[in-house]
Amino acid sequence: MQDPPAAIGAALDEIDTPALVIDLEAFDRNVARMATYVASTGVALRAHAKTHRSVSVAKRQIAAGAVGQCVQKVGEAEALVRGGISDVLVSNEVVGDAKLDRLAALAGTARIALCFDSAEQVAAASRAALRAGMELGGLVEIEVGMGRCGIAPGLAAGDLARRIADAPGLRFEGLQAYHGRAQHLVGAAERRSAINGAIRAVRETLDALDRLGLVCRIVGGAGTGTFRNEAESGVYTELQAGSYVFMDGEYAGLEGEDGRPYAEFEHSLFVLAGVMSVSGADWAVVDAGLKSYSTEKGAPQVFGRPDLPVTGVSDEHGKIEFRSGKGLRLGERVMLVPGHCDPTVNLHDWYVGVRDGRVAELWPIEARGASR
Length: 372
Known about the structure:
Blueprint: E1 19-23, H1 24-41, E2 44-48, H2 49-52, H3 55-63, E3 68-71, H4 74-82, E4 87-93, H5 97-106, E5 111-116, H6 119-132, E6 136-141, H7 155-166, E7 170-176, H8 188-211, E8 218-221, H9 227-231, E9 238-239, H10 249-252, E10 269-277, E11 283-286, E12 301-302, E13 310-313, E14 318-321, E15 333-337, H11 341-345, E16 350-355, E17 358-364
Parallel strand pairs: 1-16, 2-3, 2-9, 3-4, 4-5, 5-6, 6-7, 7-8, 8-9
Antiparallel strand pairs: 1-10, 10-11, 10-15, 11-14, 12-15, 13-14, 16-17
Helix pairs in contact: 4-5, 5-6, 7-8
């Protein structure tokens, strides 16, 4: 881990670049806005830590009412539990004795659950729980349109739930019903239609569980693009949105229910970059490239300057063209909005929290690189 790129109290132009910066005012408003909405619905928020990978962010979400955190990897769960997070769901399948033993060990200090879509996984997790003398929660992941993991809804899912309930060392918790593709459908009507399909799959599975006499405590899913649809469905009990705290270029490109740009939350996460060259008359080069932000969802955008598109990206450089208006000067700082916040965060060691133009917080990204 590198040293922080700034000291508390430093001005924005004193932060060493490139740096991952949080606008704390916008961040706080995003956290509060989601917390207020969730409190009005009766559902719970289990915010997804694959976005932020940070104990500091997780604690702020929990302080605002979140019941716990989701992660995708055992290493992420370990980082959060070490930091004091006491309720973690691995919203993913975990395969391999080494990983399962690590997960079971966490159950000594936190409530831990994971997802299943096969009987073999259930048997292996049961053995790991027994080896550790612990108990793990289990959710059946059902296929709701994502086309990735998940067992067929209905009777097949019910049979797997029964296996979890009967397995020593495991407790049946409920269903994982996340439709990730729906989060990024541009049209609001498209997203709503996709989630309606997921809701039908959940209802079919709940009927099967009821016939088996199984109590389903959790139906989890939803993301930043569709959380209102799941919350108002009458079947989902936990929302797993993560990107809402930061937002990114892809989510900003969605259409809201009113047909206007999606405006549920504000951009609060930026890559601060410095202009390192103005050798061309019509462009500048900044010191942040592929090692500072992800581009699989598109190049970053210069915040507040649509006239300055990022038109070229390489390992250490970003090329910004001057389309109209004022260009950039050597040494000037720009705030870049990444196209995809999750993998961008994973490239950095620290968040630099800025309030009123000065560094107010420095938060380590404890789960950076936790890919196992």
